[in-house]
């Protein structure tokens, strides 16, 4: 199934075994979920706890957490709110905390050390810090013609260590760490199990920015992440509201790049993930303009909970956490 193959190839910073508890850290909140160990569609525990403005500020080069004691206090509160006790969890970090790059290569070494040396050489002029201070994870997609499309996720070791430390001080090991957009795609793969035969664009829109991910037949072909500046974020619609220009302007360059650079065939579907469900008429308008189905990524198409009203109200904020937790099955 696509979720198994995608999970096996998405960036694994640590061990591959996933616990049933997952956490996403964003600029604005800590989102926690725990799935029923016998039923991957049943959300056993969940909570979304807001963060004070500026407490988490994703960056490639600077510490992301402004105050470790304050951040740990929020983590404790989030775990208590969700009624979760665990020694292990999976963790989704903000997309802006790492550099994602795609490399088109004629050859790619089989030796792991040679791979890392080649990737460090290619990345050293593109990352804003000393490449020797980076942790690099890679995903190699070999094409039928023998060429390689290698995706790398590059994060400064001190940035990664800070997130690890926050959980370690609470006695929790973050055994699997990835980026939020990859975790959200895992949710999409769970909802649409035939994605291995499709070319799909997933666009995540937030007040602080957006991320776009194209996967073609299970292979990551494109990744784009943009952060809104402070002034732009202030002028943006309130969190949860959506305007047609916002989504259209995010989707259009991705579709154009795919058609011009990646494939002669059109995308099969376009999914959007927003803080609030986009109106049906908005999706219909976008579908008409792009001549492809533009669909809302709705976790309730797969997940359920004994506390259905609360899950319904928080489902969009829980998307990456749900995808990350579901990836273990």
Structure write-up:
With 329 residues, this protein is of the alpha/beta class. It has two domains: 2-97 and 157-326, Nucleotidyltransferase, domain 5 (2-Layer Sandwich); 99-156, Dna Ligase, domain 1 (2-Layer Sandwich). It has ten helices and 13 strands. It has helices at residues 2-9, 68-82, 112-123, 157-168, 180-191, 230-235, 244-262, 280-290, 308-314, 319-326, and strands at 21-25, 29-36, 39-50, 88-93, 99-105, 134-142, 148-156, 173-179, 199-206, 209-216, 219-227, 269-273, 294-296. The strands form three sheets. Strands 3-2-1-4-8 form a five-stranded mixed sheet, with helices on both faces. A five-stranded mixed sheet has the order 11-10-9-12-13, with helices on both faces. A hairpin with a 2-residue loop joins strand 2 and strand 3 (39-50). The chain is globular and about 50 Å long. The chain starts with a helix and ends with a helix. 40% of the residues are buried. The model is unreliable at 9-15 and 230-240 (pLDDT under 50).
């Amino acid at each position: 199934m696509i979720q198994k193959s995608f999970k096996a190839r998405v960036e694994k910073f640590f061990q591959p075994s996933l616990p049933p508890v997952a956490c996403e850290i964003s600029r604005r909140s800590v989102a926690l979920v725990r799935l029923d160990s016998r039923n991957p569609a049943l959300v056993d525990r969940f909570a979304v706890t807001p963060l004070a403005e500026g407490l988490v500020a994703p960056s490639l080069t600077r510490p992301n957490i402004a105050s470790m004691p304050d951040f740990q206090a929020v983590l404790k509160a989030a775990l208590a709110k969700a009624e979760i006790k665990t020694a292990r969890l999976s963790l989704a970090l903000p997309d802006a905390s790492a550099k994602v790059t795609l490399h088109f290569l004629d050859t790619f070494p089989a030796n792991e050390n040679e791979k890392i040396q080649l990737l460090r050489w290619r990345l050293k002029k593109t990352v804003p810090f000393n490449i020797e201070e980076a942790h690099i994870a890679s995903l190699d997609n070999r094409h039928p013609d023998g060429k390689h499309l290698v995706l790398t996720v590059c994060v400064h070791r001190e940035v990664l260590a800070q997130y690890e430390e926050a959980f370690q001080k609470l006695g929790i090991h973050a055994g699997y760490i990835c980026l939020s957009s990859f975790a959200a795609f895992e949710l999409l793969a769970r909802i649409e199990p035939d994605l291995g035969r499709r070319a799909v664009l997933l666009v995540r829109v937030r007040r602080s920015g957006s991320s776009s991910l194209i996967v073609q037949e299970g292979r990551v072909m494109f990744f784009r992440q943009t952060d809104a500046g402070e002034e732009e974020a202030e002028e943006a619609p309130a969190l949860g509201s959506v305007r047609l220009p916002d989504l259209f302007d995010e989707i259009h360059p991705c579709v154009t790049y795919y058609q011009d650079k990646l494939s002669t065939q059109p995308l099969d579907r376009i999914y959007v993930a927003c803080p609030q469900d986009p109106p049906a008429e908005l999706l219909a308008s976008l579908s008409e303009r792009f001549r492809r189905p533009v669909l809302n990524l709705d976790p309730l198409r797969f997940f359920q909970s004994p506390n259905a009203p609360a899950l319904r109200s928080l489902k969009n904020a829980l998307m990456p956490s749900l995808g990350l937790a579901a990836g273990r099955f």
